[in-house]
Structures are given as structure tokens and as C-alpha cells.
Design goal:
This protein is mainly α. It is built from three helices and no strands. Helices cover 64% and strands 0% of the residues. Helix 1 packs antiparallel against helix 2, helix 1 packs parallel to helix 3 and helix 2 packs antiparallel against helix 3.
């Protein structure tokens, strides 16, 4: 029995890739956060940003004051922080030549918004 003969001799040796040498023809797929996670983080950020206002209205705070506060805080956490991360990813892509996917940057922005709101709630509770 000849043990030096390859098992699949019909495959050319250059087609077999080793871990050190990946195939050159395969396009690199971007790694994206699933959309469901990003949407879930956005919904959670919205719930967290609106959570205290119903309670403040129930205990009798002035409606105008509560609405003025909500008009500033809710967009800051829902739009501002994710937008900041998205713009930062675009700048890093241009300046440093990095390849940060926009969807990942927005997801990280919503995650940061959720964490910062929970931190603020824990600080003031």
C-alpha cells in the first residue's frame, strides 16, 4: 500500500489552503451586529429615556417642566450618542484607514446610551 499518495489527487495542491495562507479569491465578509440587537438596544434606550417622566407626572411635577426636560434628554440619548459614534467611525475610516461598519458604530452608540442612562439612574436614585 502506497501511503505517500494523496487521498484526493484530483485537487491541485494550490487549491488547498492552509491556516497560514487563506484563499485570495474569497471576499472578506463584514462582521455586522444583527439588526435585531440594534433595534432592541434602541427600544431599550427609548424606554430608559422615558422611564422617569411618567413617574414625575404622577407625583405632580409641572407638565411644562417635565416636557422641556424630556425634549432635551430623550433626543440626546436616542439620536446624539449614536450619531456621535457613527460620525466617529466615519472619521476613523477616513483618517486612519480603518474599516468600521456604520451599523456596528450605531449599535455601540445605543449600548453606550443605555449604559450611561442606567448609570445616571443609579446615581440619582
Amino acid at each position: 500500500m502506497d501511503t505517500k499518495k494523496p487521498i484526493n489527487s484530483s485537487i491541485p495542491p494550490e487549491a488547498v489552503n492552509s491556516p497560514e495562507q487563506p484563499l485570495q479569491n474569497e471576499p472578506k465578509k463584514p462582521s455586522l451586529v444583527p439588526k435585531g440587537i440594534t433595534i432592541g438596544l434602541a427600544v431599550f434606550a427609548l424606554v430608559l429615556s422615558l422611564a422617569g417622566y411618567g413617574f414625575r407626572l404622577m407625583v405632580g411635577d409641572d407638565t411644562g417642566e417635565v416636557l422641556r426636560h424630556a425634549v432635551v434628554i430623550v433626543p440626546a440619548f436616542m439620536i446624539g450618542i449614536p450619531l456621535f459614534f457613527w460620525i466617529g467611525s466615519r472619521v476613523l475610516n477616513k483618517v486612519k484607514g480603518m474599516h468600521i461598519e456604520s451599523w456596528n458604530a450605531i449599535s455601540l452608540g445605543y449600548l453606550t446610551a443605555c449604559i450611561s442612562m442606567l448609570w445616571l439612574m443609579g446615581t440619582y436614585s
